[in-house]
UniProtKB/TrEMBL annotation:
Domain Alpha glucuronidase N-terminal positions: 8-74, 126-169
EC number(s) given by UniProt: 3.2.1.131
Listed name of the protein: Xylan alpha-1,2-glucuronidase
Keywords in alphabetical order: Carbohydrate metabolism, Glycosidase, Hydrolase, Polysaccharide degradation, Xylan degradation
Residue ranges of every copy of the Glycosyl hydrolase family 67 C-terminal domain listed in the record: 501-723
Signal sequence interval, chain numbering: none
Molecular functions per Gene Ontology: hydrolase activity
Family: Belongs to the glycosyl hydrolase 67 family.
InterPro entries the UniProt entry points to: A-glucoronidase_C_sf (IPR037054), GH (IPR017853), Glyco_hydro_67_aGlcAse (IPR011395), Glyco_hydro_67_aGlcAse_N (IPR005154), Glyco_hydro_67_C (IPR011099), Glyco_hydro_67_cat (IPR011100), Hex-like_dom2 (IPR029018)
């Protein structure tokens, strides 16, 4: 598993810039850690040793005390009252002799200047104080050069913070950034930074586009967990701290994960993730008391059911003391839930939460709830309204350890959707946003589609829930409402293919997800730049070329597929490739209503489904009015004639033609751009991507011709430029 494909962004390629090498070498010859090195700290130290060996050609020695005047010092910032001890937080007899202070003073800290103590050689060591309390996952990374000393000081709010700092330092070295004057202070902006696997025990992955599961094969957990460990590493390197390891649709075998032999298998996996500071969650079957407990009901208000879950949870915590909790898809797409017993989502979630509460476990309850048996003739029911209609009335009714998980948009991970109106509408309920890194509706990792710009638009959206500047990122970041729990979750895009993600460039989505969740203020471009350097090296042509391709890719994908926010023109079930009417007369609530005169869904309050009214003012008015509704969402909110003139000055029909012609051309352009980088990227990865891009270009033409032809036939309006339509 040591290929460049496999290493993703942890290439740790040899650094050729001699200047960079010369600066780092003396600084990191020694890694100083006072105290026992175990758990997450051991993972951090091992990563530093291996990364440095691979990039700079020597393995730093790990010592308890520095023997010279230069070193990389790792330490944990001990909170008030905690024992002063080594970085691992474990007692160590050498601490008092150590030249540097292993833990900072009680909080809050002030800039009281350097502490001077005496090093093993009798020279003074000066360690500056951090200027404010560090959260557990935060870290500071300082370059200290004073007198004869020259050291790097990495301080974590916990061992996990040290690990995140170690990955940060390794990133700096990879990117050729010199440490001179380094003064970094990082704290993740989201507490829960989660990945959801949609893996099934039979080894298949629901909406998986990169091979089979790395967790399961033929109904069992894999025995060799090396690949799982490498997955934990790559997730931890971006700051991910939680994972659910089975599909939200919990089938028969997976229902048993919470008990017996299978629970012990789950515990083995939990141990792997624990080493990287990642908490393990399971998706559970709400009807488990019936399916595996032998009870006749799963009614959340039934005492027998409550007792059954309490016993199950107790067994889980015996096997996995730091178990994260449950992820639940209930009363959605035929999954069981509280509705069968006349109970609501709060009754269901609270019952599980009560069982988990004594152990600090969480219930993450999904809001992806709608009527999937709708009659297409019924024009009053609007699937987009469903999550809000179900959950808004329950605000404040959930226990403190319940978090609602809300998809970014009101439908289902389309290329373009408005932001879910639930954000900000539940001021008394913990919430996380759910993204989909897996490219279900965005080209299935056969097409290039870098999704960070899409996620950023969502996170930056101002809900106006508390007036201006109530952005989604601040709501889920927990800074606008006092939620005890909040953050971000996303459906993973990995499988057992050598390069994890099928399309090698789709690795950027997984990397970008973690980095964006760590800091939503990073730009999509900065993240793309980072990823490219770590993955393919720092050659300026590669960095500019790949970053440019990534940044253009979502707009290009949108342009040759779904126009103006309409969505759903895809092949039913597989969701790959065009089928304009595939979902038009189905039960799924997914319609575009195209006829000979026009297209789009009227979701206004005035004449449509009223969905637009679920937003706060002035967003409601913005979407409600044709005059202010943004072009890219026009057909999501309005039904308009093909001759309707957009803000761009084009008619809807001409926009459809133009975007489809240019989109397909630009997809072809990717092939050329990539070809231009042939001599700067290793053959295997170059060929892998080239193959995908060629197919994308072909498939984009198919999309173009199907969509253009469909709308030409419907409308009878010719293309102004007379290009070929069939
Ligand atoms: C989509 C997807 C399903 C998935 C569902 C969910 O509808 O196509 O495969 O189960 O989302 O998020 O639960």
């Amino acid at each position: 598993g040591g290929s460049a494909l496999y290493k993703a962004w942890l290439q740790y390629a040899k650094v050729n810039d001699s200047e960079v090498c010369e600066v780092y070498k003396p600084l990191i010859q020694q890694i100083v850690v006072a105290g026992r090195i175990e758990g997450v700290l051991a993972a951090a130290v091992a990563e530093l040793q291996e990364g440095i060996r691979s990039m700079l050609g020597f393995t730093p020695e790990v010592v308890q005390e520095p023997t010279g005047t230069s070193c990389l010092l790792l330490q944990v910032n001990k909170p008030e009252g905690a024992e002063t001890a080594g970085a691992a937080g474990e007692g160590s007899g050498t601490v008092s002799k150590l030249a540097v202070q292993p833990g900072f003073d009680p909080l809050p800290m002030s800039e009281t200047g350097p502490i001077s103590q005496t090093s093993a050689q009798g020279k003074p060591w000066r360690v500056p104080k951090a200027s404010a309390a560090l959260e557990a996952d935060g870290f500071t990374l300082l370059h200290v050069r004073e007198g004869g000393e020259n050291c790097l000081l990495l301080t974590g709010g916990s061992a996990r913070g040290v690990m995140y700092g170690a990955f940060h330092l390794l990133r700096l070295i990879s990117m050729g950034i010199c440490p001179e004057g380094l003064n970094v202070r990082e704290c993740p902006r989201n507490r829960l930074r989660m990945i959801n696997q949609w893996d099934n025990a039979d080894g298949s992955i629901e909406r998986g586009y990169a091979g089979r599961s790395i967790f399961y094969r033929d109904g069992s957990m894999v025995t060799d967990l090396q690949r799982v460990k490498d997955y934990a590493r790559i997730l931890a390197s971006t700051g991910i701290n939680a994972i659910s390891i089975n599909n939200v649709n919990v089938h028969e075998v997976e229902t048993h994960f919470i008990t017996g032999e299978l629970l012990l298998d789950v515990a083995r996996v939990a141990a792997v993730f624990r080493e990287y500071g990642i908490a393990l969650f399971l998706s559970v079957n709400f009807a488990a008391p019936i399916a595996i407990g032998g009870l006749s009901t799963a009614d959340p208000l039934d005492r027998g059911v409550q007792a059954w879950w309490k016993t199950a949870v107790q067994q889980i915590y015996t096997a996995i003391p730091d178990f994260g909790g449950f992820l639940v898809k209930a009363d959605s797409e035929h999954r069981p839930g509280p509705f069968a017993y006349g109970r609501d989502h709060a009754d269901g979630a609270n019952m599980l939460a009560e069982a988990l509460e004594p152990y600090g476990g969480l219930v993450i309850w999904r809001c992806f709830v709608y009527n999937c048996m709708q009659d297409w003739r019924d024009r009053r029911t609007d699937r987009a309204r469903a999550a809000y209609d179900h959950f808004k009335p329950l605000d404040g009714k959930f226990r403190d350890n319940v978090i609602l998980q809300i998809k970014n948009g009101p439908m289902d991970f389309q290329v373009r959707e408005p932001v879910s109106p639930l954000f900000g509408a539940l001021p008394h309920t913990n919430q996380v946003i759910e993204f989909q890194v897996a490219q279900e509706y965005t080209g299935q990792q056969r097409h290039l589609c870098y999704l960070v710009p899409q996620w950023k638009q969502v996170l930056d959206f101002d809900t106006y829930a508390l007036g201006p500047e109530t952005r989604v990122k601040d709501i889920v970041g927990g800074s606008r409402f006092p939620f005890p729990h909040s953050g971000v979750a996303a459906v993973s895009n990995i499988g057992d293919e050598e390069n994890w993600t099928g399309h090698t460039l789709a690795q950027a989505n997984l990397y970008g997800y973690g980095r964006l969740v760590w800091n939503p203020d990073l730009s999509a471009e900065a993240i793309a730049d980072e990823w490219t350097r770590l993955t393919f090296g720092n050659h300026p042509a590669v960095v500019a070329g790949v970053t440019g391709m990534l940044m253009k890719s979502w707009p290009i994908y949108e342009s040759y597929t779904a126009p103006l926010g309409v969505g759903w023109m895809v092949t039913p079930h597989t969701h790959y490739g065009p089928d304009v009417d595939g979902y038009e007369y189905s039960r799924w609530g997914t319609y575009h209503f195209a006829d000979r005169d026009g297209i789009g869904v009227d979701r206004t309050k005035r004449s449509g489904t009223g969905y637009a009214a679920q937003y706060f003012s002035p967003n409601t008015e913005m979407f409600e009015s044709l005059g202010t509704c943004p072009d890219e969402l026009l057909l999501f909110f309005h039904h308009v004639p093909y001759s309707h003139v957009l803000h761009s000055g084009k008619t809807v029909i001409q926009h459809i033609y133009d975007t489809h012609f240019t989109g397909a051309e630009e997809a072809e352009g990717f092939v050329q751009s990539w070809e231009g980088l042939r001599d700067k990227i290793d053959d295997i990865r170059h060929a892998q991507v080239a193959g995908r891009l060629a197919k994308q270009a072909e498939h984009a033409k198919h999309w173009r011709d199907v969509i253009n032809t469909y709308f030409y036939r419907k409308s009878g309006i010719p293309d102004e430029q007379g290009r070929t339509i069939y």
